[in-house]
């Protein structure tokens, strides 16, 4: 006998208590779970420790705007599908909400049947996006990219060195993709782990070190240097192929 599909958890970030409770009731009736946070800070704390499938977010919160909250979450590599749910019907507010990463924008008052339908639509879109992911940050539909003498092909999980081809694992692809996307920027060890494994993954630093050794050995076998990937003592790493980061770094090693 097959297990029923798990109920999606919807985070309701809304300071109007009665409205939040009504939304919660309708979501429960539609087969979803809900968690109410009346402050932006409460939502940040919840998402640091828990997973939610989608966030309903008001713009006007007592301690912080919904815009600032979503931007804070993105900077912390906390990605969650978001529907803005607000009384602000100005076009410029809608445009900003979508530009900073919102998936939909619903103005108050609204119908609960429409709200549930919009939530399900965003969940379907986010699930289809995840179908292409091989790590938290890398997808098989990503374009090939060059890095330190090799050409990475995400769609084939391969890296090409001239005429030679090497298969790479998902985590190695995620690490290389993150370096490529963050060239010249100091990367903390935690940020790299969260980017590749996910923010809720229980990954030890030793595991990250082992994957970095594998990546470096892969390039070394083909006489390509990854010396541009260096340790920033006490912080993490930097990928600096232009050599502009200064002398306070050393090549990334298994024990940075």
Q: What does this molecule look like?
A:
- With 256 residues, the chain is an alpha/beta fold.
- It folds into two domains: 9-130, 3-Layer(aba) Sandwich (Rossmann fold), CATH 3.40.50.2300; 145-251, Winged helix-like DNA-binding domain superfamily/Winged helix DNA-binding domain (Arc Repressor Mutant, subunit A, Orthogonal Bundle), CATH 1.10.10.10.
- The chain is built from eight helices and 13 strands.
- The strands form three sheets. It has a five-stranded parallel sheet, sandwiched between helices.
- Helix 3 (66-75) links the parallel strand 3 (54-57) and strand 4.
- Helix 6 packs across helix 7 and helix 6 packs across helix 8.
- It is elongated.
- The protein starts with 8 loop residues before the first strand and ends in a 5-residue tail after the last strand.
Output the radius of gyration. 21 Å
Strand residue content: 15-25%
The CATH superfamily of the largest domain is Response regulator
Elements, N to C (H/E): EHEHEHEHEHEEEEHEHHEEE
Gross morphology is elongated
What is the CATH architecture assignment of the largest domain? 3-Layer(aba) Sandwich
State the distance separating the first and last CA atoms: 49 Å
Provide the residue-averaged pLDDT: 88
Main CATH class of the largest domain? Alpha Beta
What is the total tally of β strands? 13
Total discrete domains: 2
Percentage of residues in helical conformation: 25-40%
- pLDDT below 50 for ≥5 consecutive residues: which ranges? none
CATH fold descriptor of the largest domain? Rossmann fold
Main sheet characteristics: 5 strands, parallel
Number of helices: 8
């Amino acid at each position: 006998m097959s297990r029923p599909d798990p109920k999606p958890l919807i985070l309701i970030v809304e300071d109007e208590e009665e409205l939040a409770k009504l939304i919660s009731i309708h979501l429960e009736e539609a087969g979803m779970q809900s968690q109410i946070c009346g402050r932006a800070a409460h939502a940040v704390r919840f998402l640091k420790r828990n997973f939610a499938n989608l966030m309903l977010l008001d713009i006007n919160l007592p301690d912080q705007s919904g815009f600032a909250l979503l931007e804070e979450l993105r900077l912390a590599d906390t990605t969650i599908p978001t529907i803005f749910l607000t009384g602000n019907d100005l076009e410029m507010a809608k445009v900003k909400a979508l530009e900073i990463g919102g998936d939909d924008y619903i103005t108050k008052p609204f119908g609960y049947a429409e709200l549930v339908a919009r939530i399900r639509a965003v969940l379907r879109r986010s699930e289809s996006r995840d179908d292409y992911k091989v790590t938290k940050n890398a997808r098989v539909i990503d374009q090939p990219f060059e890095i330190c003498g090799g050409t990475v092909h995400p769609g084939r999980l391969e890296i090409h060195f001239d005429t030679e081809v090497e298969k790479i694992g998902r985590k190695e692809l995620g690490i290389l993709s993150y370096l490529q996307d963050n060239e010249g920027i100091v990367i903390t060890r935690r940020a790299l782990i969260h980017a590749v494994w996910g923010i809720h993954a229980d990954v030890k630093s030793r595991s990250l070190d082992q994957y970095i050794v594998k990546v470096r050995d892969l390039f070394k076998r083909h006489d390509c240097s990854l010396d541009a990937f260096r340790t920033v003592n006490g912080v993490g790493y930097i990928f600096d192929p232009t050599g502009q980061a200064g002398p306070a770094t050393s090549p990334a090693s298994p024990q940075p």
